[in-house]
């Protein structure tokens, strides 16, 4: 049995089953494969394992593709449908049959069950051993049959896993795998092996729930004389409580995180760190992730989803993103979640406000909330908490302040000097003046800096809003 030579181009694949949304665990598996291939100038392929026709749906396939697109995990070549390749899978099974490495098994389900019941009663292994394995073809009945692989029965199969280490499974614990069902359709286990070989996959990076499958798949690979891919079975993701990730822990689908307004770059960074590490580095960009990522950095223990850390990483990415690019992402979020698009004037104001807005915002809804002052229109609706700052005295202050603002040069230094002097002249702390200004400019008690809002809104709009509040 040969292994992949060092000089072969790195080819990885992500092979989800289209039975639902793109699970956060599946997204991490896709990301690991993407990073490994992209960091080595290789190929990252996408295969939809849609052989389960009862559970596979076009809607689920579309959801997976959309999730991949949102995460920014581009793949090479066309999307491969496993179902469309059934003839090729069948061809390999028949090739093994012709070579005497597989055989026709005529045992019925009732016979197999009777064998298992008897073995259980006698305290023996219930692993089915077909009486047809070495039967003379002349004795074959004219009856339905499955095609089984002649798996080795002596010795052991060693999975040289890059994450789990060497995993040894005794061959006498493995059955003769069914390759073709009695209706001639190929089984999933065969399809995976054939597809990986034909697609030139060199590295199989997948969840450790597939680890036991590897031994059975290697038996097919060996029978065909094909090179064995490098295996890396990664631990699954657990919830914060250490239990298997489920709906009770929160969102499971990638699109849910998109709809909650997490930035894709932040999610890539967080998911990359979920079970993989590069020293103490927590925050990094795609270029660094591609350069650093290696299978050796993947831990053996299940990773725990940590929503606080996810928020923190995503917030850092929002803050670090260039203003125009961040606005573009924000508009994508609005479109994806069915929210109204930004009007041109609001869009320009948002762009100028971005340096103010993106600090400490962890999601796009938080960013939009901070941007309320530049997205709202006159007359400004004032929240109850902010309205308490609009007293008779504070309205008089705003009225007195207006002429000075009308003649002021509209820059930060001038405005800071003017407002601080105004407050000092009236024996006020600046906060006593800031409260009514926040109410006037945004209708809220909690807002970005008064000076930031004034500079973003501009002189004319600022004076109109102060005029409305002082009336």
Automatic annotation (TrEMBL):
Subunit and interaction comment:
Monomer.
This protein's superkingdom? Bacteria
CDD domains found in the cross-reference section: GluRS_core
Provide the function of this protein: Catalyzes the attachment of glutamate to tRNA(Glu) in a two-step reaction: glutamate is first activated by ATP to form Glu-AMP and then transferred to the acceptor end of tRNA(Glu).
Per the Swiss-Prot or TrEMBL annotation, the motif 'HIGH' region is positioned at 16-26
Its recorded name reads: Glutamate--tRNA ligase
Is Manganese set as a keyword in this record? no
Organism expressing this protein natively: Pseudooceanicola atlanticus
Spell out the SUPFAM superfamilies in the cross-references: An anticodon-binding domain of class I aminoacyl-tRNA synthetases, Nucleotidylyl transferase
Q: What HAMAP family does UniProt report for this protein, alphabetically?
A: Glu_tRNA_synth_type1 (MF_00022)
Pfam families linked: Anticodon_2 (PF19269), tRNA-synt_1c (PF00749)
* A GO molecular-function annotation: ATP binding
| Entry keyword set | Aminoacyl-tRNA synthetase, ATP-binding, Cytoplasm, Ligase, Nucleotide-binding, Protein biosynthesis
Enumerate the transmembrane spans: none
Q: Name one GO cellular component term.
A: cytosol
| UniProt domain Glutamyl/glutaminyl-tRNA synthetase class Ib catalytic: residue ranges | 11-311
Motif 'KMSKS' region: which ranges? 244-248
Family classification = Belongs to the class-I aminoacyl-tRNA synthetase family. Glutamate--tRNA ligase type 1 subfamily.
Q: List the catalytic activities from the record.
A: tRNA(Glu) + L-glutamate + ATP = L-glutamyl-tRNA(Glu) + AMP + diphosphate
Q: Does the keyword Ligase apply?
A: yes
Q: Which InterPro entries match?
A: aa-tRNA-synth_I_cd-bd (IPR045462), aa-tRNA-synth_I_codon-bd_sub2 (IPR020751), aa-tRNA-synth_I_CS (IPR001412), aa_tRNA-synth_I_cd-bd_sf (IPR008925), Glu-tRNA-ligase_bac/mito (IPR004527), Glu/Gln-tRNA-synth (IPR000924), Glu/Gln-tRNA-synth_Ib_cat-dom (IPR020058), GluQ/Sye (IPR049940)
Biological processes annotated in GO: glutamyl-tRNA aminoacylation
Provide the Aminoacyl-tRNA synthetase class I anticodon-binding domain boundaries: 339-468
Q: Where in the cell is it found?
A: Cytoplasm
């Amino acid at each position: 049995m040969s292994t992949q030579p060092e000089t072969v181009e790195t080819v990885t694949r992500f092979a989800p089953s289209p039975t639902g949304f793109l699970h956060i665990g599946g997204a991490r598996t896709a990301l690991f494969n993407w990073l490994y291939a992209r960091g080595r100038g290789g190929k990252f392929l996408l295969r939809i394992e849609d052989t389960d026709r009862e559970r596979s749906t076009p809607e689920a396939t579309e959801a997976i593709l959309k999730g991949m697109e949102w995460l920014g995990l581009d793949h090479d070549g066309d999307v491969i449908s496993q179902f469309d390749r059934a003839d090729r899978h069948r061809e390999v099974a028949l090739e093994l049959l012709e070579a005497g490495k597989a055989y026709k098994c005529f045992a019925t389900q009732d016979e197999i069950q009777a064998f298992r019941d008897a073995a259980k009663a006698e305290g023996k292994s219930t692993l089915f051993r077909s009486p047809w394995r070495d039967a003379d073809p002349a004795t074959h009945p004219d009856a339905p049959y499955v095609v089984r692989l002649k798996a080795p029965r002596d010795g052991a199969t060693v999975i040289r896993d890059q994450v789990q280490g060497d995993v040894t499974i005794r061959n006498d614990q493995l059955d003769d795998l069914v390759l073709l069902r009695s209706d001639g359709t190929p089984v999933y286990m065969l399809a995976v092996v054939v597809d990986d070989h034909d697609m030139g996959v060199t590295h199989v990076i997948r969840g450790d729930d597939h680890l036991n499958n590897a031994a059975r798949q290697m038996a097919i690979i060996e029978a065909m004389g094909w090179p064995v891919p490098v295996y890396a079975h990664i631990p699954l993701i657990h919830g914060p409580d250490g239990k298997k990730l489920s709906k009770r822990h929160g969102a499971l689908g990638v699109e849910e995180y998109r709809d909650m307004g997490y930035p894709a770059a932040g999610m890539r960074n967080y998911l990359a760190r979920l079970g993989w590490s590069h020293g103490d580095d927590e925050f990094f960009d795609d270029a660094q992730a591609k350069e650093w990522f290696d299978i050796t950095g993947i831990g053996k223990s299940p990773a725990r989803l940590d929503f606080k850390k996810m928020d923190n990483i995503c917030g850092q990415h929002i803050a670090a993103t260039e203003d125009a690019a961040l606005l573009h992402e924000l508009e994508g979020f609005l479109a994806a979640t069915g929210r109204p698009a930004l009007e041109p004037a609001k869009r320009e104001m948002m762009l100028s406000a971005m340096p103010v807005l993106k600090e400490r915002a962890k999601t796009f809804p938080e960013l939009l909330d901070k941007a309320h002052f530049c997205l709202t229109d006159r007359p400004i609706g004032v929240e109850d908490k902010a309205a308490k700052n609009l007293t008779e005295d504070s309205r008089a202050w705003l009225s007195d302040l207006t002429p000075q603002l009308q003649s002021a040069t509209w820059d930060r230094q001038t405005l800071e000097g003017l407002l601080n002097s105004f407050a000092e002249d009236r024996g006020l702390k600046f906060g006593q003046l800031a409260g009514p200004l926040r109410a006037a400019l945004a209708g809220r008690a909690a807002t970005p800096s008064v000076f930031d809002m004034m500079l973003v809104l501009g002189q004319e709009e600022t004076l109109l809003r102060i005029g409305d509040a002082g009336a």
